[in-house]
Specification:
single chain; 208 residues; alpha+beta; Archaeosine Trna-guanine Transglycosylase, Chain: A, domain 4; LON domain-like fold; five-stranded mixed beta barrel; 34% helix; 30% strand; disordered N terminus
Length: 208
């Protein structure tokens, strides 16, 4: 009986997701605006709208956002669509919010170059009180947010949550994408904050 229950838990953590590879990073609870024009993604979004399902965003390892399916990093974030707009320029504008991280177990590429993946969901990080030593990082994050517009202004602000603060700084700071991916792959908020603190010192955003 126990073995059966364990198998069920494993199955519940896995699902199939269409992937939208990008040259940007999104964490759980983060927001991102996208302009969509390629038929493969327009079709994907139509299916998502009809079924009420989401899709996955992964960072591109090599290749481009348009045309042939690129190589991707295998840890990404499942997202939900929160806003649709048929723009005057003919593009579809959408906003998404990050839901849960996942690891790609395997994937296939359809004839239209849409990537479909079997993924395993990664457990959500628990909220942790932000240590006092990192309060200066929050001040920087607040300044960044003050200059942002939709969809970022719609996010609930959780400046006392170590996971939330580290995730938003990872998305918004001017860091190399490989560093952002490494931060995404971390599952321990305090380790992420420690790395970000050093990066912000290097960027001159903080003083010791």
């Amino acid at each position: 009986m126990n073995d059966s229950n364990n198998d069920s838990e494993i199955i519940l953590k896995r699902r199939k997701l269409p992937l939208f590879p990008l040259k940007s990073i999104l964490f759980p609870q983060g927001a991102l605006a996208l302009k969509v024009f390629e038929p493969r993604y327009l079709d994907m979004l139509t299916r998502c709208e009809k079924t009420g399902s989401g899709f996955g965003i992964c960072l591109i390892r090599s290749g481009c956002e348009v045309g042939t399916a690129p190589e991707i990093y295998t840890v990404g974030t499942q997202v939900e669509i929160t806003f649709w707009e048929h723009r005057k320029d003919g593009l579809l504008g959408i906003s998404v919010i990050g839901d849960q991280k996942f690891k790609v177990l395997n994937h296939m590429v359809q004839s239209d170059q849409l990537m479909l993946a079997d993924v395993e969901l990664i457990e959500q990080e628990a909220a942790q009180i932000l240590p006092e030593q990192y309060l200066s990082m929050v001040n920087v994050l607040k300044k960044i947010f003050s200059a942002l517009q939709h969809p970022y202004i719609t996010l609930p602000k959780k400046y006392d949550d170590a996971s939330w603060v580290g995730s938003r700084l990872s998305e918004l700071l001017p860091l190399a994408m490989q560093k952002k991916q490494k931060l995404l792959e971390l599952n321990e908020p305090m380790s992420r904050l420690a790395m970000l603190y050093d990066e912000m010192l290097s960027l001159g955003l903080l003083s010791e």
